[in-house]
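re: that complex we talked abt at group meeting.

here r the seqs, copy pasted straight from the sheet so there may be weird spacing, ignore it
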Amino acid sequence: MQYTFITLVENKPGVLNRVASLFRRRNFNIESLAVGRTERPEVSRMTIVVDCQGDMDAHKIEANLYKLVNVIDVQDVTQQPAVTRDLALIKVKAGPERRAEINNLAEIFRARIVDVAADSVIVEVTGTEEKIEGMIELLRPVGIMEMVRTGQVAMTRGAYEGTRRTPGATGGGWRDEDESGLAEY
Amino acid sequence: MKLSGAEILWECLVREGVEVVFGYPGGANMPLYDAMLNYPIHHVLVRHEQGGAHMADGYARASGKVGVAMGTSGPGATNLVTGIATAMMDSSPVVFITGQVAAHLIGGDAFQEVDVTGITLPITKHNYLVTRPDEIAEVVREAFYIARSGRPGPVLIDICKNAQIEKTEFVYPEAVHLAGYQPQSHAPATDLEQAVKLLEKAKRPVILCGHGVLMSGAEQVLQHFAVKTNTPVTSTLLGLGGFPASHPLHLGMMGMHGEAHCNLAIQNADLLLAFGMRFDDRVTGTLKTYAPNAKKIHVEIDPSEVHKNVQVDVPLVGDLKNILTDLVPMVDEYDHEEWMQQINEWRSEGDQRSIMAWPEDGKLHVAHLIKDIWNATGGGAIVTTDVGQHQMWTAQYYFLDQPNRWITSGGAGTMGFGLPSAIGAWFAHKDQEIWTIAGDGGFQMTAAELTTAVQEGANVKVAIMNNSFLGMVRQWQEFFFEKRYSAVNMVSPDFVKLADAHGVPARRVTQPEEVAEAIEWARKTTGPVVLEFRVEQEEAVYPMVPAGAALDQMLRRPVRQK
Ligand SMILES: Cc1ncc(C[n+]2csc(CCOP(=O)(O)OP(=O)(O)O)c2C)c(N)n1
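got the structure back, here u go
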């Protein structure tokens, strides 16, 4: 299952490399990783989508991220109400005769045509993973020449926060109660 | 006042309380070496940067302070790499300082340019590339703090040559500001209560004493805890000395070459209290059948160790000493008499098989020699080892009643660690007796440091257990490769002459009756001494849990007929 983590890191050279190297070394599979600036110039924000077997893997990822000195905060927003967005640019093979058709398809997804050339157009689409996958599927028969995606970015809605499992991160523990009243992970 | 980056570095090292650094100069760190002459820090010129790294590591482990090792760029830095990885695997606080080519040359494959921060990224707790002199003070302050706090570990600072030379205003940072790095010190009370509940129900509990006991200074409170709750204690390789070996509750070492009754106790336990240890494969055997009936409490400072290898019932993340101090008043006295009896039965069965029960047979056995050195030194020496069979025998038979006297490469198993780590330990405790136990193979990996010992007058006693084999590999070939010996026969130089060439007094011992006298001679002789023991060649370390087997599936030493 895909888990989505929001990670705040210090905005310093080499931090992206540290995170990527950690995932490689610990054998975690990154599905997508998007990094960018935040409202605070000294902090960058990463949205990391990882394939996990379950919450135990998620715990491992969080705890390992905290081993990096430059990591400030890690939240798992997989189960939280959150806005997630990905952006794709898709260059489609299309002469003037097919532009209207593509325009119609794009409109269904509230996508836009952002460049028109003699025999191709570029479609820009923003949205959830599923929406972008849907757009791609519709454009595939037309003929996709080139495509690029930013990877997912995420933000929890309202006052919601993601799960923080690592002890020490918030002072809170991570436990489910079984019959004996003891933690079972 | 304006100072050069190099001067700032030394100013900061002095403020960190650094007394000694182990290093080697070269083009990219010459400004550091020039500035060094004006500061009251002793520099030890090593013979190979790996040796310097192990010395700093040995110094750190013996003193509890941060060790410092230095090298130049390129090959100087890559020679440090084995030592850095060794320190990382055993959570040893060492700051490594390397020279780097000038900032404007980086990325251009300049002479002796190597991407040191890239290479050491996965084998340091943290590392820094410094391109400007005004970064140095803050970086050094942070590096020492990171190295010694939380779960300790090595930190590397790679300093560009221009940053060493250029001048800037020196401002010593009063405090360290790290937004994300905040090691947890105490566990929440609710978690402690859960641990106590498990302990109340337990009939067959065992404490696993790890390196963390020593690193957090929890030896005393561990004793209170174990005695109050009447719980037996078994140690990991690096946890030895964390609990007195002569204490009736102490069982001995667990794991691949642990004592049988310790492994049996773990496999039959209904509760494991893992204190500052990380369930390494060398102590668990196969995880599928590890302590199958035991609930597990894991006290550990590094949250990423929790549930890593073994899923536990109650993780308590924080400083072990604090957590045990919180726990002691919460627990009661429990009766584990039956359990202790069972363990002691297992123990007496093992005693019959012990190599110590062997009659004198005219040969030198490493285990016996370790016991002889233990007797001669009253068990009070600082002992470092190399890696292999002799290391396991030393762990088994140099019984430690005191902490921080046992220095060995556990996680990395780095051959060549013994002699340099002993030299490093000597700088921490010049008044104490220091022995290093080495194999003929491992000794030769860093033997050049004998000269360093001579140059510094390091009072270390080197015992080479010469079995003319790479003994541990030979043992594996004997057990698991049908005795097809491949690349394990080792021709060695004449160790006595080799020592002599270094100006080190040395003796060769071939007969049991020479042993006691030779050890006494070594102890009385000041400065470095080499003893070469010609030991039984094809001896095996028992018990042995084959890699991947269950912890109680041990190969046992056959009982010898008298
Ligand atoms: C640097 C390094 N290379 C290889 C090994 C693998 N290894 C582990 S024990 C051992 C044999 C050590 O032989 P020796 O030093 O003679 O000690 P003995 O086992 O005979 O006591 C070897 C080769 C290692 N641990 N470290």
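couple things i noticed - Chain B has a mean pLDDT of 96. Residues B 386-390, 413-415, 439-442, 465, 467, 469-473 surround thiamine diphosphate (CB under 6 Å).
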